[in-house]
Fold:
Amino acid sequence: LKARGLEIGIPYWDWTRPNTQIPALAADETYVDPISGNTRPNPFYKAQIAFAELETARDVQAGITETPTFGDHTSLFDGILLALEQEDFCDFEVQFEVTHNMIHYLVGGNSQVSMATLEYSAFDPIFYLHH
Structure:
């Protein structure tokens, strides 16, 4: 991307680290433009699903907030660690997908047009922070 002239980084959410909420970049409905000082709609908060005339929604589950004791890991970290300990690709892939898919549920919850549904997950801007 840099070779094509992009001068910004692509944000990424390391969900294996302790979280108290989803990243502020995606949690806040608006942001203050640092150049103009104007409050603007946050493009990472929600998105239109044009073919369905809907907007993405989130039903963030309490399980997303995990603050382990000092020296311990989150359950998501442990899930990835378990995947990396597998000795064949099939076992790795299954364990990795279980942990990866948990984020889809923890962010989308029971909302129909969310990260939790295969049909709409890629429309939620947080999908790109996750992947």
Remarks:
- The radius of gyration is 17 Å.
- The chain has four helices and four strands.
